[in-house]
Design a protein that fits this description.
Blueprint (H helix, E strand, L loop, with lengths): L4 E2 L4 E4 L6 E4 L6 E3 L13 E6 L16 E6 L5 E3 L7 E6 L5 E6 L2 E6 L5 E6 L4 E3 L3 E2 L5 E8 L12 H7 L3 E7 L5 E7 L3 E7 L2 E9 L10 E5 L4 E4 L9 E6 L5 E5 L30 E5 L5 E6 L7 E3 L5 E5 L3 E6 L6 E7 L14 E2 L5 E6 L6 E6 L1
Length: 388
């Protein structure tokens, strides 16, 4: 029920490996923060927005399709408030930095929640044979962008089931814009690949980024910049034969961060601590020194930092001098302010990697003082926060 409240579930404990203080924020049901390309933190209030199945009346494991809705937590008091009450599970949530506008997918619809008025509006409804990809809100707050891929018959399940099959079968992928006032939408670009990770530039509503989605070692050019005025795409960081690129995101000041692990790496990790597709290559095998890069909005590489090893996801602090990464067992801090990366173990996360919701996906707060991450070490996905 919208407006239903839960008292604080916050508890503190010391990490067994580093002794750092960690706050466990949730303990009821499954609780999932926004994807790492987004940000659950409010830029002005001490709050986070997240998904939870706590109001579903059911007790489901993370891989049993929990019924998620959207909630807000006051990080000062720990109080949790329900914001949506959808009959189908909510996914692919995004929001403006100030949390005034929240956009999410439920069923075949994309909806907007105005946090000031409480009004919910349908801004796009899929009527064709396409799956809806995660939306991104333009910085001018006039429209959203998202990917649409033709529906294909592939298996579904945890541990990247169907990842490789979908990559080969999808031949019709589209970038679509829809106005936030609900007045309509249109395709702005059509591709011949599976497309994903659509993200607007943080300060320019005419520039966006998307990817050719699939196992990294099979994708020959992962990141693309899209000029929404000219409706033209151009490659960002032109890949060579040795490159396996992914997990791209915009930094707060408008650079494109990406991870390059080298040949034989598919960008995945499973609950068996192996890769899902390139199973003949151990997760940590090195045939090339992995690196992370920063590209400008013209797609040119402006910084490259070799990494002693790779993490599964990275997220950058506001001035992209410090990264947080989720290694197989630990969260690590990586100082990239100099010519060489310097690593420090932050804490152990103990997640299973079994589902996408249980991936840690660590993200920085807007001010760079806190890190939010997920773990299913208790059997359900819960949220944890650590101050840096």
């Amino acid at each position: 029920m919208i407006g239903q409240r839960w008292p604080s579930e916050i508890r503190e404990f010391k990490d067994e490996k580093t002794g750092r203080t960690i706050k466990q924020l949730t303990s009821t049901g499954n609780n999932v923060h926004l994807y790492f390309t987004e940000n659950s933190f409010d830029a002005h209030k001490n709050e986070i927005i997240f998904r939870s199945d706590r109001a579903s009346g059911e007790d489901r494991a993370p891989h049993e399709d929990p019924l998620y809705n959207i909630f807000r937590m006051d990080l000062d008091t720990g109080e949790i408030v329900q914001l949506t009450d959808e009959a189908e599970s909510v996914h692919s949530v995004t929001k403006t930095p100030d949390s005034r506008i929240v956009v999410y997918i439920v069923g075949n619809k994309i909806k907007k929640l105005d946090m000031e008025t409480g009004e919910t509006t349908v801004i796009y409804e899929e009527v064709g044979n396409y799956n809806l990809g995660a939306p991104s809100i333009a910085p001018n707050r006039r429209y959203i962008g998202f990917c649409r891929n033709e529906k294909v018959n592939v298996p579904s399940g945890p541990n990247y089931t169907g990842f490789k099959e979908r990559y080969y079968l999808v031949k019709d992928g589209r970038i679509t814009l829809a106005y936030l006032d609900g007045s309509g939408g249109f395709d702005v670009f059509k591709d011949t690949h599976q497309v994903g990770h659509f993200q607007f530039c943080p300060d320019d509503s005419t520039i966006a980024m998307y990817c050719h989605e699939g196992p990294w070692h099979l994708v020959t050019q992962r990141i693309w910049l899209l000029d929404l005025v000219a409706r033209e795409a151009r490659p960002c960081f032109r890949q060579g034969e040795q490159d396996s690129v992914g997990h791209e995101f915009w930094t707060q000041d408008g650079y494109i961060f990406f991870d390059d692990r080298g040949p034989g790496h598919d960008g995945t990790i499973t609950s068996s601590r192996t890769q899902a597709v390139a199973t003949e290559v151990p997760v940590k095998e090195r045939t090339m020194i992995p690196f992370v890069g920063l590209a400008d909005r013209n797609g040119n590489l402006v910084k490259r930092i070799n990494m002693p090893y790779y993490c599964n996801h990275y997220h950058a602090n506001p001035d992209h001098t410090l990264l947080v990464g989720d290694d197989v067992d630990d969260l690590v801090l990586i100082d990239i302010s100099g010519d060489e990366a310097r690593l420090e173990v932050l804490c152990t996360h103990k997640t299973s990697w079994h589902t996408q919701s249980s991936h840690c996906h660590p993200t920085w707060s807007w001010d760079g003082k806190r890190i939010l991450y997920a773990s299913d070490c208790s059997g359900r996905v819960n949220l944890y926060m650590i101050e840096v």
